[in-house]
Amino acid sequence: MIDFFQSIGHNVLSRFASLGRATRMLLGALISVPDFRKGPGLLIRQLYMVGHQSLLIIMVSGLFIGMVLALQGYTVLVGYGAEDSLGPLVALSLLRELGPVVTALLFAGRAGSALTAEIGLMKATEQLSSLEMMAIDPLRRIISPRFWAGFISMPLLALIFSAVAIIGAHLVGVDWLGVDSGSFWSIMQSQVSFEKDILNGMIKSFVFALVVTWIALYKGYDCVPTSEGISKATTETVVHSSLAVLGFDFLLTAVMFSG
Amino acid sequence: MNTRKIEILVGLFVAFGVAAFAVLALKVANSGISGSGETYTLNAKFENIGSLKTRAPIKVGGVVVGRVDGISIHPQEFVPVVAMSIDADYECQFSDTTSVSILTSGVLGEQYLGISPVIASESAKQTCLGNEVTDTSSDLDDLFGVQSKALKDGDLVTDTKSALVLEELIGQFLFNQGSE
User: One MF term from GO for this chain (chain A) (predicted)?
Assistant: First the structure.
């Protein structure tokens, strides 16, 4: 009986302890902005690894999701003779939901897991401790550039995703299925508002960027430094950040679009 | 891979993101640019506004001239009052005999406000703009002894037609059938 309570207590305490370590790491990464006196090289390199290398998967999935949305939306809308509303249907669902969310999920799989594995291996091979031995703060040298790279690239990737997907929807809807090009754009423009839809979508993707990058970096930084620990940390990164993204998406949608 | 190549690729990536933002802002959304012009406000009392929403378009002959700014209840009379923000180019152009009705676009479409404009007389326009009226001889209104005014910021439009509510229409129809 006592053991049971002890196990509850142990779980709760270790959860809070890990939350505390994660917060300290985030604060450390936030405060120690990458050292620009040595040139922005570290940040640029991470932007390349995290952002540019995710470009292809984001653009290809955006194109296909846009095309599928247009195809599915068209078959339903044409039944009501409302196929002209295909533009706003595609644009609103992309800008409000699919753009930020699918980008965040793909980003967690493509870049988040790589970050975790990289930092986990650095820890396992004691590179992080050697940096500390040389009086270089690993938070500043390793974590901070990666955090800012993720935070900057994900909103850009989400914007690219939405733009490419709308082009894909135009490709299918207008060029293939024969929706009028003029009404596709003009009804879309009259329904989509810059502040309400585009800016809110961007706020979402900034929040997701923070959550996903934070989880990925923390899981790597805090992993058990064995090969098994790294594999576990990588899996946890993808699972936890996907769930966190979906949960935050519901919260943000409830705040932004329900009123 | 050398630094220069990485920097070029990152530059391309960022430029791509900014371009996507520009496409979305300019091509996909509207109000960021066009909705920021000067406007003036007119109010209109209705019996029933149906499902009119804020930001619904206000049209003259199908051309959008403004948007619904807010909908509230008149504090004494308990009827809905719609605040309309209209392009400032049309201030002092409509006479106070202009009527406003709530219309529906298409079968499943949303509701909008239609203005049937009555053009204000020249002297009313000048009075509304705050100028001295010098020559009133050409005005048709004065022949009938009616002084019409032009609508300016904050005025109330009195001639309004409410939204058609399906249940009321059916009720009226049944009532008429019954009395025959």
Answer: phospholipid transporter activity
DSSP letter for A32, please.
S
Q: How far is CA A46 from CA A52, A109, A131, B33, B121, in A?
A: 9, 17, 18, 35, 68
Q: What is the total residue count of chain A?
A: 259
Number of domains in chain B: 2
For residue B46, count CB atoms less than 10 angstroms from its CB and return exposed for 0-12, middle for 13-18, buried for 19 or more.
Answer: buried
The three-state secondary structure class of B67 is strand
The predicted complex's ipTM stands at 0.74
Residue B170 in any domain: the answer is: no
CB-nearest partner of B28 from A44, A91, A157: A91
Question: Is residue B22 domain-shared with residue B49, that is, in the same domain?
Answer: no
Q: Which helix (DSSP H) or strand (DSSP E) does residue A60 occupy?
A: helix A55-77
DSSP B119: B
* 3-state DSSP assignment of residue B66: strand
Distance from C-alpha of A246 to C-alpha of A75, rounded to nearest angstrom: 28
Residues in a beta bridge with B80? B73
Judged by CB atoms closer than 8 Å, whether chains meet at A48 and B28 is answered as no
Q: Do B13 and A195 touch (CB under 8 A)?
A: no
- Same domain? For B91 and B16 the reply is no
Residue of A nearest to B10 (CA): A48
Angle between helices A55-77 and A144-170 (to 10 degrees): 40
Residues B53, B123, single domain; the answer is yes
User: Whole-prediction pTM value?
Assistant: 0.70
Which residue has 């270089």 as its token pair? A136
Coil, strand or helix at B111: strand
